[in-house]
Amino acid sequence: MDAAANLIAETAAGRISLGEAFARASLLGKSADIGCARLDYDRVNRCGMPEFIYGAGKSVEELLKIASHMVKTCGRAMATRLDEVRGRAMQSAFPDGEWDSAAGTFLIGTPAGPERGTVAVLCAGTSDMPVAREAVNTLRFCGIHGEIYCDAGVANIGRVLALESVLRRADAVIVAAGMEGALPSVVGGLIPCPVIAVPTSVGYGAAMNGFAALTGMLNSCAAGVTVVNIDNGFGAACAAVRMLRQSLPLGRGNFLSLLVERGIRIPEGMCFQLEKALHDSGDGAYKKSPVEFFREKFADLSAPCRMSEYCRVASASGEQSGVSFCWHMDGSVYDLCGQGNGPLSAVCNALNGSRLVPEFQLADFSAQMFGDGAGAPVLAFAAVRSGISEQVFYGAGIHTNFDYAAVSALVSALNLRDLAKNESVEG
Description:
By secondary structure, the chain is α/β, with parallel strands linked by helices. Among the domains are: 33 residues, no CATH class; 130 residues, Rossmann fold (3-Layer(aba) Sandwich), CATH 3.40.50; 129 residues, Alpha-isopropylmalate synthase LeuA, regulatory domain (Double Stranded RNA Binding Domain, 2-Layer Sandwich), CATH 3.30.160.270. It is built from 16 helices and 17 strands. It has a 5-stranded parallel beta sheet with strand order 8-7-9-10-11. Strand 12 and strand 13 form a beta hairpin. Helix 1 packs antiparallel against helix 2 and helix 15 runs parallel beside helix 16. The N and C termini lie far apart (76 Å). About 1% of the residues have low confidence.
């Protein structure tokens, strides 16, 4: 008699109440009692993440039995806290799996669909790496992209500050640190996204196997830092998964991941401007294609300046590129021409020589094809820096012609610089 028929028979005989029958029925097909464990196949639907196998304390036979049932039913499984003996046993039973001896994890199968969301995993020292690797492996199993940044402890605060732009692009940051556990407080004071602190058992006597770091993190003066148990990289990753499941698709890193999925690479220095544009757009950013988003927020800017009638011309020296174009500004049109090492350099020289715009330098440039075929648009990014300022402004240009995309990105950057300047004056 199968489970459903047995449930009906017990209910009809009055051996169980109707309420209990409904409770059992709700679990049919969602759990399995295999003797050494009662497997929870519905956890991914209830909690947003599957059931995991805690390897410590289980015999090799129990471990393999549980993993086999999970793989048979779900197609994948992940075990944590495995020693060398259990890890090698899993590797022998599941040769296609992934054994990470440092993290003590074993992964079988991959999550459905591409990775979504970005979590930066920061560890204070190399000794914290096993905890960081456990976190990253757990994130990956749950379909979240994780990236480790190692040896960024507070003994050299510059190492943390150098990563600020990277951390700001993440949807959440996991920070693993031992000894006094100060690093999460520093990170929590730099960035707006969730910070999950993991005290590790690294340190000398008074570190008390991670207890000093734990109490330090619980007393963090950076408001809102989440703290998990000592050496619990797995728990930190699960906390991040829950946070990202609630916030998708609004995370900054999720949008960056979406761009990467579509083959778009964003210049490192542009991420602050992109973050502001995403914040201003709200949900609207995800209702547009990436090309539409960049066209609206960065490329199609007609004020205060625009360019027309751009073309290449012969250079007097023959060794440089020559360009001519019309520059529209304050209701007037100016005919300009210039020379340089390339078309973009020639445009910069023409504009700086005209004195129609405040002096600037070209700080960065990159371009990429968006799609395949001769008619695929080029997405270009250009950055300008004013002569007396270190602030950089990025613009974007989109066109099927490389030159037009490049010079459009430059004009966009100049307009964004001037618009930012005007907002600052009005403010």
